[in-house]
Design goal:
The chain is globular. It is built from nine helices and twelve strands. Helix 9 links the parallel strand 11 and strand 12. Helix 1 runs parallel beside helix 3 and helix 4 packs across helix 5. It is α/β, with parallel strands linked by helices and about 270 residues long. The longest helix has 26 residues.
Length: about 270
């Protein structure tokens, strides 16, 4: 089992409370993988372009009045949000002793995240925009990143919770990045680890024994299960419904619709490997 080739954790932040929780989880993952943490705040160009238009209003809680949204006001607000996001990231990195950096850019959110992602990055985003809270479905950022996916994409639920346990699905034991990442994360925290393997070709019958042996060589114990492919989708959905990290290759799910349904139904974070 090779060491996972992750060199940095990149997290998109926006200063909201869920974004702060995402920064905490990103910092923990970076510490476990012994890599640097990078935060990215994007001033949404689409929002800035709306400023000043007659039909776009903002609510003033002090006067209860509906006021025009002026661009200078919005730019000051975004600068203040960027500074709060920077402080959130700095605090999270400080608690884990992780080296960190922070950048604020202006542009389309999805495009800027993709532009900032380097080879070897693990990118952390919310399933929906952090400001949307507990909204259903998948946000446009996740849709874009699934289409032009970085090497590793960690999708967090609307209200991120501690990981606690890890389930990994791997079709191929040999050179499995999903298994290597799961093992690296578990090694630092001794979380319970569960490995799901498909039964039948091309997965050899001895795969379960081999995974157990390789993990024990790292000092790790795991529950290793081989299941018929027909049962795997149900088991992945069940595992995702629990509050734990689910790790799998993006193409392990047959169709985009099934992958979207899995992400929408997960109570915990999902780490997708390209």
């Amino acid at each position: 089992m090779n060491t996972p080739p992750i060199r940095r954790v990149l997290v998109a932040v926006d200063a909201s409370e869920p974004s702060g929780a995402a920064a905490e989880m990103a910092a923990e993952v970076a510490a476990l993988l012994e890599v640097a943490l990078a935060g990215l705040f994007v001033e949404d160009l689409k929002l800035l372009e709306l400023a000043g238009r007659p039909l776009v209003r903002r609510y003033d809680p002090l006067s209860a009045a509906s006021l025009s949204l002026e661009r200078p006001v919005l730019e000051r607000t975004l600068r203040a949000q960027a500074e709060r996001a920077r402080r959130q990231l700095a605090a999270a990195a400080g608690r884990t002793g992780t080296a960190w950096s922070f950048r604020s850019v202006r542009g389309a959110v999805e495009r800027e995240i993709l532009a900032a992602a380097r080879p070897g990055d693990l990118v952390v985003v919310g399933r929906v925009g952090w400001a949307r809270g507990s909204g259903a479905g998948l946000g446009r950022t996740v849709h874009a990143l699934l289409h032009d996916s970085p090497e590793a994409l960690l999708v967090l639920p609307p209200k991120p919770v501690p990981i606690g346990a890890v389930t990994v699905f791997c079709e191929e034991v040999e050179g499995s990045l999903a298994l290597a990442l799961a093992a690296a994360l578990v090694a630092g925290r001794r979380w319970p680890l569960r490995v799901l393997l498909p039964s039948g070709p091309p997965t050899p019958a001895a795969a379960e024994e081999r995974v157990t042996r390789e993990l024990r060589a790292r000092g790790l114990e795991a529950e290793v299960c081989q299941l018929p492919r027909a049962a795997l989708s149900r088991e992945l959905a069940r595992s995702g419904g629990a509050h734990g990290l689910l790790v799998l290759r993006r193409d392990a799910i047959a169709t985009p619709g099934e992958l979207h349904a899995l992400l929408e139904g997960c109570a915990g974070p999902v780490l997708l490997i390209a």
